[in-house]
Amino acid sequence: xxxxxxxxxxxxxxxxxxxxxxxxxxxxxxxxxxxxxxxxxxxxxxxxxxxxxxxxxxxxxxxxxxxxxxxxxxxxxxxxxxxxxxxxxxxxxxxxxxxxxxxxxxxxxxxxxxxxxxxxxxxxxxxxxxxxxxxxxxxxxxxxxxxxxxxxxxxxxxxxxxxxxxxxxxxxxxxxxxxxxxxxxxxxxxxxxxxxxxxxxxxxxxxxxxxxx
Amino acid sequence: xxxxxxxxxxxxxxxxxxxxxxxxxxxxxxxxxxxxxxxxxxxxxxxxxxxxxxxxxxxxxxxxxxxxxxxxxxxxxxxxxxxxxxxxxxxxxxxxxxxxxxxxxxxxxxxxxxxxxxxxxxxxxxxxxxxxxxxxxxxxxxxxxxxxxxxxxxxxxxxxxxxxxxxxxxxxxxxxxxxxxxxxxxxxxxxxxxxxxxxxxxxxxxxxxxxxx
DNA sequence: AAATAGAACAAACATTTGTTTGAAACAAAC
DNA sequence: GTTTGTTTCAAACAAATGTTTGTTCTATTT
Lengths: 213, 213
Prior knowledge:
- Two copies of one chain form a homodimer.
- Chain A has helices spanning about 1-25, 30-35, 40-45, 50-70, 80-95, 105-115, 120-140, 145-165, 170-180, 185-210.
- By secondary structure, chain A is mainly α.
- Chain A folds into two domains: about 5-65, Arc Repressor Mutant, subunit A (Orthogonal Bundle), CATH 1.10.10; about 70-100 and about 115-210, no CATH class.
- In chain A, helix 4 packs across helix 6 (about 105-115) and helix 5 crosses helix 10.
- The structure holds a DNA duplex (30 and 30 nucleotides).
């Protein structure tokens, strides 16, 4: 039965942007159904209730995000500097830049900053694999650095990337919408990679001077 | 009349944590008044309506944040590296670490990520002065770097700091609440300053090699 | 063609929500 | 002690909200 799945999709596509912008509680089922051109009872029929629809929207967003911008799988021998650049570009493509539909990344950011019960699954299936990939690259770049320090480096990198999504409205307000339009993925990825590699190089040099443990 | 101001404060203190955690729409006036041990009509009497109370809560949070952790005013001749370290520590103290009451920083972060009509004032009085202070320091550290590039460096720095507030729930989930407790202001400020100064040094060297414009 | 199961729909339901109202309590000024 | 202006309070109001219900429509099966 394809019609039921289509309806579910229509509801998800209508609810997604609203959930992403206003959150679960502030979004009403009436507005969702209006936008989806569906009857008011559709949500309770096709999903159990509003909460369940929200949960499925998060799952759907994570799945699409993952499928569209997969975590790179590098051939053996790829230099770790190259891997870092790829990772940053991938990460920016996931969260910072607006693909259509834009609500996927927005809803995931909401889950990051204001977790709901859907967050545990979101971290397990979406955040952690991403974080592990970066940790692997950093283990290559900073083999002799303690685990705690390496984590801080990882957070420095994802923090730089996420900032352009998380604080986007304020950044636009700050530098003007005109300049913000120049912040494409290539520019940002180039800057963040360069910035981070410089710092990593110095850390590596220092830890090497102190000697590998 | 001190009693009216006290009542306003009681309402603000009760509403603040709720607004910070759930946002304007998801927080009900009944819960606020319950927590403040006040009559249901108190909000509409002392503030015009719920929106106004929210707006005042943001204003109050920004004011307290500013007063408790002021932007440093360095004596002439302070080395810019030292200024950067001070700025990072100040910024982390403002947003990353929990002072009591914790809702001040949380509510401001909500305004950052999900702006309301209160945002314009928030950016003008709170965000921009902070950003200008950092820009000044960076002009000293990177005098020969184009404005755009310097802005990206600024965002890299505040992005690193903000990440520990914005993504705190997920970071805790990721590294465990035990390790997260180690992330004190000193540790984070040290790391972020070191990380950023390394990158800045390389940028300065490169721009100097190309020659000042 | 009749029967059946899945989907859509309008209407209604019980709560919840922000706000208003008019009276009561209170404190200060005359 | 009365008056005046301010603050508190219980009750009520209208609008909005998530969910349920019983019916109608539709397409597939028998």
